[in-house]
């Protein structure tokens, strides 16, 4: 099973809608305390170890600001 | 047809204030809301509309209010359908109206011609926003001035009123319904975003304080009635549907009996459509002067810009500058004589408007003294002018 | 003038502006026959758009509002809204109703407002001299499709059905009897009814599309090409033979718009009385 | 007497509603005139948003602010764009310090209110930040009255949110009383 | 910005003007995914009308012409007519497409012109602040139906089918996978394709119609209410349960308009060469 | 941009007649047909239309001719769709046009604003008929003069040409395409039923005798290109679709990069939309004088009325009456200076038009000498004035 | 079977379209030589004795100018 | 030289076509100018219908007739409305005596042509009355040419009616030659 290396959220445009949290089947996200440049509270991938890199959060993010980096992939690339 | 005076806020500062207040209500409301209040008071019972910023509140509030008075508010599929339905309702015997803004106003142009041609009383509000095209939906502008007069095809005339306060949105709406019934024409209220979206105190008189004009209907037997034969006042009696007159009403050029084909009568009829209004301008034309009516420096303004100009006049006075501000309330038919009178003796005329120079052209036409340059103080792009800027303009362009 | 004409026509507007042998005049008569049978002449209010067919109602001695090209339906809605007791009927052409006015048909149908749209389908823009209409058959040479029309037809009945009309029929001027019956049903139908009438235009359709300007030929053409088929599932077959299905396709009861409005107004005023929701 | 108040922030915060509520409050002051004007982008999707309220005992012609007495800032962007309209010596500047770092010199007449933070934390709903802020500034709006304000807030929001909003309003008022500027 | 965004978005136009959690952004991404899969970004030309959904295409780094409210389809036709090799896609809303623009949908569909209409159905006029749309469910309270909507819905898919579209689908933002597949099919379909997407508008539809402004709630609502049912004869049943049928409803081959035009031009020029008929 | 002279019939009477005829063809054709001929010659390859009398022949002939040159003539579902499709085709990189009459022209107004806002070159012909509303479809009129300039919402400008002969229908159409490409604007040919439906000899030069203007397209790399940044001539380069520029083109107020939101750049852009035309009027504005250009009596005319006035001038001359007829060929932007020059020294000015006084208002504005009354000789209802009537007017109103 | 007493054609408005002739099942009409006020050659019911008063000619006449008078009817009315 | 010709009748008779054909004939006279103008009702449904043809060796400004040289009447209605435009001493009046009783005094320069009757009887098609009439008047139109006319008539009608029309034209011409006015 895949694992996530890192989950990036672009703070310039995140609107804190929390659809990433809603869609994630592995309960990776929680609302965080950091504000995006647009003044919204951003989610935090606090349980990144749960992530199975299904990509749902990325494809459902309405602002296209979330990127999931898979571990395997990176290895392959190296 | 006595009309309440149009000056904004009068009721609050004037003598009989307390007296008046007893006979009505004072409420803080949106300009667009004041328009609805007045329409309902005037007897409007049909509204056909389509949402568009910044006029949408008129539709929204109508949809809330009309059912309570057994009226009908219909959100139609587009603005064309909205105004055509209003014309249908008008011939159905009902006072009817619609409201829109620039893009929707474009779409209504053909039906404005229809309302003119079939002499259907109705009221059309255009709360102006920035153009051209989709422009700036939430910004104010006054770029539809000529469109309101000339946007439809062919020769015609109609009345266009320009309110500058929420109170005037109320007053002009009452006036618009009255004029539409008096002349059997579409009357246009050419408001703008500032006026439509301002909230301020509006005095709503009791109905018995106001005069309401109702369309004149025929009473003679059907056989004796000639549908488009004018009465003395230039307007034919209106045999609205279901009154037994079995009226033939067509949008084509027509003769007195409503049929097509008689060129001579058709020509006379077109002439009458115009003259029934323009020969009676004394009944409704209105120009106000604020400030020193002998001042050599004069602003000419309409709509929301009147307000900023008034403040500029006041500020000028403080600085020892005598200024008059000529406020054109009924912009069409353009009140040539009243404007000429209001500008008599002015040496310097500055037309202030939120477009690239429209009333300016009318003033150039009306004030035919080559030595007086008609200056333009123009603001576009949704920028409402500040009083200081008027004074700066006077200084800088000197 | 025959007796029906004597009784119901607006004499001072005669003669009809229609060309010799035009189906529009036949529709005037058929409609008046239905009205006479029902005795409802005083309940009528008509609207019409622009086109030859739009003049049909003008010759009837009733209230009629003839508006702009394509806009007869919204005018009817405004009338109906303020005169709910009236039988409101709109006369419109295939160009008027399906081209420029198509959208209004959709929305009147979905509202199920109590009115009747009589759509006269002569397969062409007749008034302006024979241009292609949305109802013109593929391949036809018209003034604006000199090399043959390549656009599929729009079928007004199918559109009315899809949009939610509660009564839909199509007949032709070669079917005056059932047409009159359908008129009567429509006049009594509570809701939106759409009646399409295939009608001869000898001068444009006849001359340029069908190859003969003779009224007789054109009426015969309709007789030959319109076949009764009231089952929509079999239309494709009929159409593939170059025929036009006619018949009464739908007639159901559904909440009517003006009645719903009145119910709403009633309810709202009651709630208001009780200080209901804001 | 002419008092000018500006509320500003971004779309979706309910900035306009703040102005509307203050304007409607003036129905209860028969001798005063009021105007409330606005400029805004569509719906709740960011972008600058601003409302001007003018209160006067005279007829109000120019309905926008030219020398504000009070400015309430609810976003950093608004500070950037509009702070220059403030008069350092005259204008009292209230700002939501959840969203705004600090008000730069020379503006010293300031009052920080963490409206959004309180709304998010105390009421789990950032939508009431504006009402919290109103509670916190009502005493600075003179003439004004907390009791009238409360009534109007109650009638300005959907019924099911009425209680929540009143609570936020009171909390804001409480915040003011415990933190009010000298 | 995720990699897809990096690759295809018009950076200088960011952020999207959509509210937090709006479905419109999800559609941007889904569409770009389909385009990426096909590798056809350089073949695109987009048009759009006015409304929130009309901005969807503006953020994509491709040619886009955003015109007037309701007029995206005729603009697309003008583009397609002059650039037949282009994949022309129109982004439009339920108000834009079914209210003011309904007629253009009918006529583009019947022409079977090779283009794709992506209709974002959020069941409301969102941009103007929550007024009733032709797609709003009966009974809904909106800013212009404060006492509940009494007008039947217009079903864009049914209309497109009746008018002659050759590909018709409906999905929702809760069905991104099949939606992407449908986008790909549409982009490769020779003819008129209509794709309706039920999409969440938390701010207007959510807050006022469905009772919650939370994006999560609104996406869940779509998941719960959109059920796959590709057999039209069973739609009535689905609808009577308050559900919305989704799926790929139609995909057939029929003569495409621009190809017909080219065939005609070819033929006519040949005939002309031979001195054919006048 | 050299243009063939506009004077009708020149080719037949002038010196180089035989020479010219060698290089072209002379055909008897309808005014509307001449318009099509010219459009095709100018490179028009898309026509979006809708039938309406008296403009229908343009659509009909286009549908016959365009397929022969691999163009496309589409009869759309209405006039709105027609013009919007033209705008789409224009951005598709094609020269495109439409034609209509009054009622359809109403419906096109919103899309005219669109064409202005997205700077899409295109040509719109309005063959005027009687109004208002459905009016008289088969009768001539000139009642859409202001509508052609002001019918859409907001501030904008465009060019309107008024032909008076079939030859001018040809010449103006060439000119219209050229100006539309030069300025990236919709150019309106405001014809009328008389001109559209007249048949007369038209000289069709060979293409190599004419100058055709093509839109300027960008050549810089995409990253360096700023879509709405004007060139020196006020007009931005046009990155039509499929040229790799991936152009964002919106109908809203916009900044240089095409995005919404920057108010300052938006204002500048609106100003530019107007000034790009009005600052370059010397490139196209045209006023002709027929008859005695020193005469104290002057007619002012446009469109088909020019012809009757010319005959009146000739008849007057026979009777010993000196008259000049000032023919306004480019009616918008109104050529103030040229008209003033053409009227210099005139003591009596009679504006002759088939409406209730439109150009009259412009002359009143432009000739600001209070001692000169601007008289109106007006004919409406489809009645084309006879030369004798002009002279009778001069006598009777004396 | 009914018989026709008389068949009247209103000469003010007849347009000579001959649909009456076309529709008549009993071959009653022939084109005539009289012109209507609108300048069209009017039909003539030359075989009126064939008429069975079916009413088709009357109801199909597009200008509503044709009237069939039945014999029986008249009798009944007397 | 300026020649003015008016054809008039009602819609559906092909009146305009008569003018068009004469105008097109002028393509074959390089030194002459021609204008053809019209006024008409829609389609073939009665109503007045008229076309003016002006031929001149000068540029033609006013494109309508003011002193007609030749007037061709094809309906009683047209006579009623337009006869007064004729000049009793100058204008030659040709009329279809199938449809028109007589031309009243003082107009004496007349020539009766039973065009509709001939069309109906000889060609079983009243649609060719106009072409018959053209044949009958071409010699009165000067400049003009029967041969050119024939070519143009041929190319002005639908192919399948070409032969019929040419026959009608020739019959009209024949009628003129056998009945021509003194
Ligand atoms: C806005 C507008 N566009 C075009 C026209 C011109 N016009 C008049 S009737 C007509 C077509 C009529 O066709 P149809 O509706 O089929 O009626 P028909 O004459 O065939 O009965 C058109 C295009 C118009 N009057 N108004
Ligand atoms: C002619 C015209 N009428 C009205 C408007 C105002 N308007 C802008 S967007 C819109 C409705 C948009 O609704 P929809 O198409 O459903 O798009 P959404 O915002 O819901 O995505 C309206 C009515 C306009 N711009 N132009
Ligand atoms: S879905 Fe995207 S925009 Fe929404 S909170 Fe998550 S990262 Fe931010
Ligand atoms: S990739 Fe899938 S599992 Fe990982 S965080 Fe995103 S949604 Fe959750
Ligand atoms: S043109 Fe056709 S539809 Fe119109 S009146 Fe003549 S025959 Fe009838
Ligand atoms: S209003 Fe609704 S549709 Fe529009 S951007 Fe906001 S959430 Fe999306
Ligand atoms: S059907 Fe009527 S109009 Fe036609 S010929 Fe017979 S009587 Fe005359
Ligand atoms: S009534 Fe019947 S049988 Fe008698 S003439 Fe008429 S159609 Fe013929
Ligand atoms: Mg038709
Ligand atoms: Mg929507």
Structure, described:
The complex is a heterooctamer, with two copies of chain A (78 residues), two copies of chain B (398 residues), two copies of chain C (278 residues) and two copies of chain D (182 residues). Chain A has helices at 19-23, 56-60, 71-77; strands spanning 4-9, 30-35, 41-44, 66-70. By secondary structure, chain A is of the alpha+beta class. Chain A has a single domain, classed as Alpha-Beta Plaits. In chain A, strand 2 (30-35) and strand 3 (41-44) form a beta hairpin. In chain A, 44% of the residues are buried. Chain B is an alpha/beta fold and 398 residues long. Chain B has two domains: 2-209, 3-Layer(aba) Sandwich (Rossmann fold); 289-396, Rossmann fold. Chain B has helices at 10-13, 17-22, 31-42, 56-65, 79-91, 102-117, 145-150, 166-183, 193-197, 263-278, 305-318, 336-342, 359-366, 387-396; strands at 24-30, 44-49, 72-75, 95-100, 122-128, 159-161, 186-192, 199-205, 248-250, 287-291, 297-301, 323-328, 330-332, 348-353, 374-378. In chain B, helix 11 links the parallel strand 11 (297-301) and strand 12 (323-328). The radius of gyration of chain B is 21 Å and the shape is globular. Chain B starts with 9 loop residues before the first helix and ends with a helix. Chain C has 278 residues and is of the alpha/beta class. Chain C has one domain (3-277): Thiamin diphosphate (ThDP)-binding fold, Pyr/PP domains (Rossmann fold, 3-Layer(aba) Sandwich), CATH 3.40.50.970. Chain C has helices spanning 3-8, 23-38, 72-82, 94-100, 102-111, 156-163, 176-188, 202-210, 215-225, 235-240, 257-273; strands at 44-48, 63-66, 87-93, 115-121, 167-172, 192-198, 226-228, 244-251. In chain C, helix 7 (176-188) links the parallel strand 5 (167-172) and strand 6 (192-198). In chain D, 35% of the residues lie in helices and 20% in strands. Chain D has helices at 15-25, 76-82, 115-122, 129-137, 146-156, 162-179, and strands spanning 2-10, 33-40, 48-56, 70-73, 92-95, 110-112. Chain D has a single domain, classed as Pyruvate-ferredoxin Oxidoreductase, domain 3 (3-Layer(aba) Sandwich), CATH 3.40.920. The chains are: A alpha+beta (78), B alpha/beta (398), C alpha/beta (278), D alpha/beta (182). At the C-F interface, loops of C face helix 4 of F. One iron/sulfur cluster binds at residues 4, 23-26, 28, 51-57, 68 of chain G.
Please mark out the parts of chain A with pLDDT under 50 across 5 or more consecutive residues, or reply none.
Answer: 74-78
Principal-axes geometry of chain A comes out as globular
CATH topology description of chain A? Alpha-Beta Plaits
Count of β-strands of chain A: 4
The oligomeric status of these chains comes to heterooctamer
**Computed structural class of chain A:** alpha+beta
- Beta-strand content of chain C: 15-25%
Integer-rounded radius of gyration of chain C: 19 Å
CATH class of chain C: Alpha Beta
Unreliable runs of chain C: none
- From the N-terminal CA to the C-terminal CA of chain C, the straight-line distance is 61 Å
What binds here, in terms of ligands, is: thiamine diphosphate, iron/sulfur cluster, magnesium ion
**What's the helix-strand series of chain C?**
HHEEHEHHEHEHEHHEHEH
The CATH class of chain A, by name, is Alpha Beta
Order of helices and strands of chain A: EHEEHEH
Let me know the largest β-sheet of chain C: 8 strands, mixed
């Amino acid at each position: 099973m895949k694992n996530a290396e890192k989950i990036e959220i672009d703070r310039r445009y995140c609107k804190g809608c929390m659809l990433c949290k809603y869609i994630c089947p592995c309960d990776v996200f929680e609302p965080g305390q950091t504000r995006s440049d647009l003044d919204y509270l951003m989610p935090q991938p606090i349980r990144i170890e749960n992530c199975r890199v299904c990509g749902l959060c990325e494809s459902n993010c309405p602002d296209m600001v979330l990127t999931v980096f898979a571990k395997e992939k990176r290895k392959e690339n190296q | 047809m006595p009309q309440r005076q149009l000056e904004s806020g009068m009721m609050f500062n004037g003598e009989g204030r307390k007296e008046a207040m007893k006979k009505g209500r004072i409420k803080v409301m949106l300009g667009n809301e004041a328009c609805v209040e007045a329409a309902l008071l005037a007897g409007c019972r049909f509204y056909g509309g389509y949402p568009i910023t910044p006029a949408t509140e008129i539709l929204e509030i109508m949809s809330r209010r009309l059912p309570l008075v057994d009226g009908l508010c219909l959100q139609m599929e587009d603005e064309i359908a909205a105004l055509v339905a209003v014309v249908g309702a008008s011939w159905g015997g009902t006072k009817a109206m619609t409201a829109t803004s620039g893009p929707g106003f474009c779409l209504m142009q053909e039906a404005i011609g229809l309302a003119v041609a079939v002499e259907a009383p109705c009221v059309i509000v255009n709360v102006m926003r920035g153009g051209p095209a989709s422009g700036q939906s939430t910004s104010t502008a006054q770029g539809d001035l000529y469109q309101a007069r000339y946007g439809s095809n062919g020769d015609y005339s109609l009345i266009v009123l320009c309110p500058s306060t929420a109170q005037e949105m109320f007053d002009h709406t009452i006036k618009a319904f009255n004029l539409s019934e008096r002349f059997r024409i579409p009357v246009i209220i050419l408001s703008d975003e500032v006026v439509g979206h301002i909230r301020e105190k509006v005095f709503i008189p009791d109905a018995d304080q106001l005069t309401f004009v109702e369309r004149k209907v025929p009473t003679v037997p059907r056989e004796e009635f000639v549908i488009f034969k004018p009465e003395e006042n230039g307007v034919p009696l209106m045999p609205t549907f279901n009154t037994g007159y079995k009226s033939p009403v067509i949008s084509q050029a027509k003769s007195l009996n409503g049929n097509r084909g008689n060129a001579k009568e058709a020509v006379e009829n077109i002439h009458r459509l115009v003259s029934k209004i323009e020969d009676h301008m004394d009944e409704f034309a209105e120009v106000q002067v604020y400030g020193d009516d002998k001042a050599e420096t004069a602003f000419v303004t309409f709509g929301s810009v009147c307000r900023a100009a008034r403040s500029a006049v006041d500020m000028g006075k403080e600085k020892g500058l005598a200024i008059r501000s000529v406020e054109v309330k009924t912009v069409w038919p353009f009140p040539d004589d009243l404007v000429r009178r209001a500008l008599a003796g002015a040496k310097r005329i500055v037309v202030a408007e939120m477009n690239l120079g429209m009333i300016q052209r009318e003033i150039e036409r009306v004030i035919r003294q080559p030595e007086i340059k008609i200056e333009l103080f123009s603001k576009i792009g949704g920028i409402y002018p500040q009083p200081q800027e008027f004074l700066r303009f006077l200084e800088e362009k000197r | 003038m025959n007796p029906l004409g004597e009784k119901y026509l607006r004499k001072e507007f005669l003669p009809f502006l229609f060309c010799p042998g035009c189906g529009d005049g036949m529709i005037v008569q058929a409609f008046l026959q239905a009205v006479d049978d029902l005795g409802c002449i005083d309940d009528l209010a008509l609207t019409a758009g622009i086109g030859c067919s739009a003049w049909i109602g003008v010759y009837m001695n009733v209230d009629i509002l003839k508006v702009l090209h394509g806009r007869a339906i919204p005018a009817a809605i405004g009338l109906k809204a303020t005169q709910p007791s009236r039988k409101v009927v709109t006369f419109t052409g295939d160009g008027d109703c399906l081209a420029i006015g198509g959208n209004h048909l959709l929305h009147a149908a979905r509202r199920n407002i109590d009115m009747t749209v009589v759509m006269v389908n002569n397969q062409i823009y007749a008034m302006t001299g024979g241009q292609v209409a949305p109802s013109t058959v593929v391949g036809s040479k018209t003034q604006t499709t000199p090399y043959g029309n390549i656009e599929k037809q729009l079928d007004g009945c199918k559109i009315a059905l899809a949009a939610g009309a509660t009564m839909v029929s199509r007949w032709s001027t070669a079917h005056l009897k059932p047409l009159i019956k359908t008129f009567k049903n429509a006049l009594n139908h509570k809701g939106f009814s759409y009646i399409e009438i295939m009608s001869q235009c000898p001068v444009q359709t006849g001359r340029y599309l069908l190859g003969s300007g003779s009224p007789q030929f054109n009426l015969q053409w309709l007789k030959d090409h319109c076949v009764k088929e009231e089952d929509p599932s079999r239309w494709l077959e009929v159409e593939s033979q170059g025929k036009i299905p006619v018949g009464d396709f739908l007639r159901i009861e559904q909440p009517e718009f003006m009645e719903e409005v009145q119910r709403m107004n009633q309810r709202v005023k009651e709630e208001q009385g009780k200080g209901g929701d804001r | 007497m002419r008092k000018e108040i500006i509320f500003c922030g971004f779309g979706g915060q309910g900035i306009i509603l703040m102005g509307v509520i203050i304007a409607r409050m003036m129905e209860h002051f028969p001798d005063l005139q009021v105007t409330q004007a606005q400029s805004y982008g569509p719906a709740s999707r960011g972008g600058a948003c601003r409302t001007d309220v003018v209160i006067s005992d005279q007829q109000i012609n120019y309905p926008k602010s030219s020398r504000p007495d009070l400015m309430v800032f609810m976003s950093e962007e608004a500070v950037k764009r509009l702070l220059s309209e403030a008069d350092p010596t005259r204008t009292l500047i209230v700002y939501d310090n959840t969203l705004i770092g600090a008000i730069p010199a020379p503006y010293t007449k300031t009052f920080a209110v963490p409206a959004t933070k309180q709304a998010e934390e105390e009421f789990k709903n950032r939508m009431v930040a504006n009402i919290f802020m109103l509670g916190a500034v009502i005493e600075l709006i003179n003439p004004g009255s907390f009791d009238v304000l409360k009534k109007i807030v109650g009638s300005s929001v959907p019924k099911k949110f009425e209680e929540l909003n009143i609570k936020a309003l009171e909390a804001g008022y409480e915040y003011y009383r415990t933190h009010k500027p000298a």
